[in-house]
């Protein structure tokens, strides 16, 4: 009887050890899951009214960009935290700046969106 108990305990120990080793290998071989940081809540409702805004990049890399209105620029800035723009001129498309047909334009001070 003692021999049977010793054999059963030995078999159970071997099974547990083997299972633990398999689990360790599985954990080591499982690729890490990268979790993206949560996107900001950009529930901003804009009208479809076209009132162009010329924006310049905050990081000063790249060219100007025309947005349909200031609200659409705010949505862009919210959804793209690394690609922010500020209002350079209201009521004018960027490619029209400097053309006499669009003058006068309203040049605004630099306003950077809050991060």
TrEMBL record:
Lineage: superkingdom: Eukaryota
InterPro entries (alphabetical): Kazal_dom, Kazal_dom_sf
Signal sequence annotation: 1-18
Keywords associated with the record: Signal
Cited Gene3D superfamilies: 3.30.60.30
Domain Kazal-like residues, every copy: 36-96
Signal in keyword set: yes
Coiled-coil features, chain-numbered ranges: none
Protein name: Vasotab
Taxonomic source organism: Pseudolycoriella hygida
Gene label: VASOT_3
